[in-house]
Amino acid sequence: MSQLAPVRVGLLGLGTVGGGTINVLRRNAAEITRRAGRAIAIRCATARSIDKPRRADLGGIKLLKDPFAIVNSPDIDVVVELIGGIEPARALVLQAIANGKHVVTANKALIALHGNEIFAAAHAAGVIVAFEAAVAGGIPIIKTMREALAGNTIEWLAGIINGTCNYILTAMSTAGREFGDVLKEAQALGYAEADPSFDIEGIDAAHKLTILASIAFGIPLQFPRVLVEGITQVSREDVRYAAQLGYHIKLLGIARRTPDGIELRVHPTLIPEQRLIANVNGVMNAVLVRGDAAGPMLLYGAGAGSEPTASAVVADLVDVARVLTSDPENRVPHLAFQPDALTDVPILEPGAIETGYYLRMHALDKPGVLAEVTRILAEQQISIEAISQREPLADEDVVPVIIITQRIREAAMNAAIARIEALPSVSGPVTRLRLEHLE
Q1: Do the strands 295-302 and 7-12 form a parallel or antiparallel pair, or are they unpaired?
Q2: In which residue ranges of the chain is CATH 3.30.360.10 found?
């Protein structure tokens, strides 16, 4: 092996993932050097509190208070950004690029919202921005789609890409618990933040889906066009009724190529219980991808955590080390497709999305009510796959009615729900969840 100089790394952020990155690099130093062709060494690091005790050996690493001192240092080849958020992360990454430094980041929000700007700057500067750790932790989904599936036309993908939501929905399913109770437990265990809104409202998953869709279809990053619904309205009753009908409820990020454009959506989804992805439980992640040549494949693993995410960070560092001296034009493009070959394919409006539906309503327990509901669905050309009337609710004269429909455009379903809710025989709003067979 040639004796190339070590790759000099500056680390921004010494939190959970930053500490894990140091630990993985130190523990596996010999193997990493054999794979990269040169050593990878963290020279300096910064954090909000540099005096705080860390679960990592910081020996030989210079600690600095100013992150810009790292991105402006002539003694650093690669900047690893692990501080999260938009600012100052965006300014630091752009400054590192302007200084000719390669960047590795785990910041999904930064890539989803500002990736187009960042990748354009990196392309102009001839440097790499690597971001495998931004999606699904230790699962190599970006590398798989960008490189291993390069010979495929990606038809669709569906992912469980938020461990907090998956933990909550799993507990609601297996233990019959209420959403609020499980959320408190997830916060106590460290699976959910004190303010969990980014997770439970689907925003975190939408950031990740934005990135996956861009790589899958060769389109610019377009986070504002994603349909986003969280899990806060999923009830224990819906989880139970879905299970009785043979479905599990998961928060899915779905991107699908259609003749009219591309669907980008994150929402709670009923999935047939026999599908592998329906049985991904707890905080684990999984992404199901269908290529025209490879067919469907499922990638499963830890979507977060210190060392699973650090595994992806270090893999990106190895990739950078391997191509430091290569011609920038011959590197793997950031978003899989050559920068001048990205296409601005239309993103479908929510009303044009086509999927199956689960409907739950409370109807008066008297003859003719179901006939009214099914007539409205038929007039909207919505086919019913299954219908079930449950036992009357205690001390009430209404019964839960559950309907599973075949695939239909969302605009037609919205119109049907509005008409059903206007019926005097239907009490309260109709609960609507989407359904995907993922065949």
Answers
A1: unpaired
A2: 141-298
Query: Which residue carries 């054999």 as its tokens?
Result: 34
Cis amide linkage into residue 88, ω under 30° from 0: yes
The residue written with tokens 């509901």 in the block is 373
- Decide the pairing of beta strands 261-272 and 247-258: antiparallel
Architecture of domain 350-435: 2-Layer Sandwich (3.30)
C-alpha R_g of the chain: 24
pTM of this structure = 0.94
- Of the candidates 282, 279, 262, the one whose C-alpha atom is nearest the C-alpha of residue 271 is 279
Instruction: Write out pLDDT tens, residues 202-226.
Output: 999 999 999 999 999 999 999 999 9
How far apart, in Å, do the first and last CA atoms of the chain sit? 48
Computed over every residue of the chain, the mean pLDDT equals 94
- Structurally, at CATH architecture level, domain 141-298 sits in 2-Layer Sandwich (3.30)
Convert the pLDDT of each residue in 386-437 to its tens digit: 998 887 766 678 899 999 999 999 999 999 999 999 999 999 999 999 999 9
Beta strand segments in 280-438, E: 284-291, 295-302, 354-364, 384-389, 398-409, 426-435
Q: In 3D, which of 122, 337, 123 has the Cα closest to residue 220?
A: 337
Q: How many helices (H) and strands (E) does the chain have?
A: 14, 16
Say how far apart CA 197 and CA 389 lie, in whole Å: 34
The CATH code of domain 7-138+307-341 reads 3.40.50.720
d(CA 359, CA 337): 40
Instruction: Provide the H-helix boundaries in 330-403.
Output: 369-379
* Predicted confidence (pLDDT) at residue 1 exceeds the cutoff of 70: no
Q: Is the pLDDT of residue 199 over 80?
A: yes
3-state secondary structure 50-112: CCCCCCCCCCCCEEECCHHHHHCCCCCCEEEECCCCCCCHHHHHHHHHHCCCEEEECCHHHHH
Exposed e or buried b for every residue in 51-89, given b needs 16+ CB within 10 A?
A: eeebebeeeebeebeebeebbbbeebbbbbbbbbeeeeb
Burial 98-117 (b: 16+ CB within 10 A, else e): eeebbbbbbbbbbbbbbbbe
Residues noted as catalytic = 208
Average pLDDT value for residue range 9-34: 95
**Ranges in the chain annotated CATH 3.40.50.720:** 7-138+307-341
